[in-house]
Amino acid sequence: MLSDREVTNTLNMLRNEHLDVRTVTLGVSLFDCVSHDLELFIANVQAKIARYASHLVPICNEIGAKYGIPVVNKRISVSPIAVVAAPFGPEGMVKVCKALDWAAKEAKVDFLGGYSALVEKGLANGDRALLESLPDALSQTERICSSINVASSRAGINMDAIALMGQQILGCAKASADKDGIACAKLVVFANIPQDVPFMAGAYLGVGEPDVVINVGVSGPGVVRKAIDRLLQRGTNDKGEPLSLLDMAEVIKRTAYKVTRVGEIIGTEVAQRLGLPFGVADLSLAPTPAVGDSVGEIFQSLGLSSIGAPGSTAVLAMLNDAVKKGGAFASSSVGGLSGAFIPVSEDSSIEDAAARGLLSMEKLEAMTSVCSVGLDMIAIPGDTPASSIAGIIADEMAIGMINHKTTAVRLIPVPGKKAGDVVSFGGLLGKATIMPVPQGDASRFIALGGRVPAPINSLKN
Questions:
Q1: Model pLDDT for residues 346-401, shown as the tens digit of each residue
Q2: What is the pLDDT of residues 249-305, one digit of tens each?
Q3: Which residues, at least 6 apart from 212, have a Cβ–Cβ distance to it below 8 Å?
């Protein structure tokens, strides 16, 4: 437990630097709601979510006010719908998705994640039904998020699923064309997806998780940047020596430690008030479009003209590692993704670099080899072929598979827009300049289908 003095000192140090608890996510298992009767299944699901989620938002608000640290988002994650709703076809899946959206609205949460499928090794009937339902399901709901895991270091890459996702991403964009393809912002394709991630759009409750659990997602890129800037203003380290990158890594690590302690105390108290177990703290640096709350600005504090300049991948590797080290020391319950996110439209500095041509899709892909997620919230031309989208996904999945890390792709092909145009999604989703996609034709490669085998080092047993 933290002492009152430690809590007060930490909060005073971090206040006014865009520190927040980005999300408290209530995980709810739906396996005991299963039924072959669609209406009974929906009734069971809505009843269970209501039973556990009805007090989530007011309790989060009360505890946030108590500590002066807002809980920005309150969310729910559920068991993979492709599994628990496996008896139902695509039309039934859409009805389930709408029922989940209703439950999320009743609970007054921002998002509900778990409209998900785990298809890294193959497509079961429920998986295929869910994937086929995605355009209708995500365009006809407001708060539902979907994650599809198509690759893992153990199973390899399911190229059939990737080919289908290339088509379905375009389908989601077309179905929500009146809102600039925003349904795609609620859909993310993963390799090595964690079972306990609280951040959207990837959140779902894994099979090995508790029946009901509280997970917390802590952010704070603005806090990290201010800590670096204070060190730079001082000009020397604790020994009076000139500053080096080792000193920068140390201050990032110490700041991540403090941020994680704040998030864990709030998440633990929410869990206690709800009478539920506390799961994990995900200490990812998740930016917002607000100036001063940017991961990209950290790159500038560390000496680069902007994110995307030579050295960006090295800076991101150091940042990610230091965040993980600090958070792991602060908590025995670190989980989820825990690192640095680089979502283009959601980070004002990253979006600006992309708009000025300083950050390309190719450079972003290189950086994803060392960050916590991948190609995230990238707007692309609406006429991008499905095979090109599938090829981009396959490249990113290969990085995750070979390196035994989580990677993901969240692309938004904006209908009617071309490279250089600007689109605004609003809120935390921000705005984006349409980025060009790599040239060339991947259609024959994607049409081969099958699976890319897992690397030999997957045979760890």
A1: 888 899 999 999 999 999 999 999 887 889 999 999 999 999 999 999 999 999 99
A2: 999 998 888 888 888 888 899 999 999 999 988 888 777 666 567 888 999 999 999
A3: 26, 27, 28, 29, 52, 276, 277
Quick one: three-class SS letters along 65-89? HHHCCCEEEEEEEECCHHHHCCCCC
Sorted by sequence, the CB contacts under 8 Å of residue 110 that are 6+ apart come out as 23, 73, 74, 75, 143
175, 167 in Cβ contact below 8 A? Answer: no
State whether residue 346 is helix, strand or coil.
Answer: coil
In 88-239, where does DSSP find H-type helix?
Answer: 90-107, 125-139, 159-175, 221-234
Q: Parallel, antiparallel, or unpaired for β 431-433 and 451-452?
A: unpaired
User: What class does CATH assign to 27-191?
Assistant: alpha beta
pLDDT computed for residue 13 by the predictor = 54
Domain regions of the chain by residue span: 27-191
Q: How far apart are CA 288 and CA 19, in angstroms?
A: 11
Which region holds residue 240: left if phi is over 0, alpha if psi is between -120 and 50, else beta?
A: left
In the structure encoding, which two tokens stand for residue 321, read together? 């590692």
Coil/strand/helix, residue 313: helix
> Whole-prediction pTM value?
0.92
Q: For 228-282, what is the HEC assignment? A: HHHHHHHCECCCCCECCHHHHHHHHHHHHHHHHHHHHHHHHHHHHHHCCCEEEEE
